[in-house]
Amino acid sequence: xxxxxxxxxxxxxxxxFLAASPLFARGALAEGLRPSDPVDxxxxxxxxxxxxxxxxxxxxxxxxxxxxxxxxxxxxxxxxGADDEVTLRANREGFRKFELRPRRLVDVSKIDISAEILGxxxxxxxxxxxxxSNRAFHADGEIAVAKAAKAGNxxxxxxxxxxTSIEDAIAARGAPVWFQLYTTQRWEVxxxxxxxxxxxxxxxIAVTLDxxxxxxxxxxxxxxxxxxxxxxxxxxxxxxLSRKPNFTGIDLGGVSSTVVTNLTWDLxxxxxxxxxxxxxxxxxxxxEDAKLAAxxxxxxxxxxxxxxxxxxxxxxxxxxxxxIIGAVGGRMPILVDSGFRRGSDIGKxxxxxxxxVCIALSVSQVSSVFLGSCxxxxxxxxxSLARRHSKTSRRRWSGERIASSRMLPEN
Length: 411
Fold this sequence. Notes:
By secondary structure, the chain is α/β, with parallel strands linked by helices. It is built from 16 helices and 12 strands.
């Protein structure tokens, strides 16, 4: 065989190999030649972090400051997801699957981003979601969050395991606050928490459905190993719930955690018959469950995967939101959380049909920015930052009503 023939055969084999390579898949080579994210052009400098929350360009500026300011175990508690953290990442990546189709020649000089949620009017559809143990990030804890909610007239939802009582949170907010409920394994504890929240003036009880087993938080566990403090001195080993103000005066015999294995539709019906205020289910991911909730007369649902912190491998909330909204058919309000960081994220959820969007992680992050030199200013500004970006997004897309921008799933 001549050298020329060998060279030709070799070239053919090389071309066949390259043609089959994923490197030359549609757009793959182009993707490899440019940064995948604008931050690659102007990366955050770890030596030049923001010194004040007003310097933040987006909520992502808060996280490295938090890592610097709080103990490793506390940062790990905030940052961790469950297991491989697939769902934690999917919550962010899910927004890339949706595009907006804006309409032009719409007057956007006046933008109304107010929202009505179960009969109450708020200045924006951004809800401050329930987060536990806020005092791990700032001494003022949920009181600071309540003050921020008051300043921006946001709906606030207080966690069962908050480090502030429902009474004190409502006093700081100056208006009713929803109460997020972990039912625990005992009905007597559930009933005691509901009665306390109702007596305090909470207009809604939101039952969390997804904590059915202890989460495997590997990021948290690894960072906790680097924390030289005696964590047991603050947290205890067996008194987690009894240290939380909302459990004061309630007999916790036989109950030591928020894990619930006995929560069924029968128990939800019993709760529905017991609760005198609005009744909300938080943690819905399947459209079948959303339909059952509407059929059962539930007042609202929160589409949530707990920020990827409880179950790994479940869907991103933005991915399942369209089919859930379709299944409910407008019979009750739908809120959504998990992974929302930008105004454009919020806009996409609203365009799909959600009534409001709950943010949680950013509240914890921004609270830590106020440590040290910023401590005298406790009210976290992440909600105002998100509100400003959401208003800008609405102006770009549709004007007064976000729904005029139709969502298109990415091909």
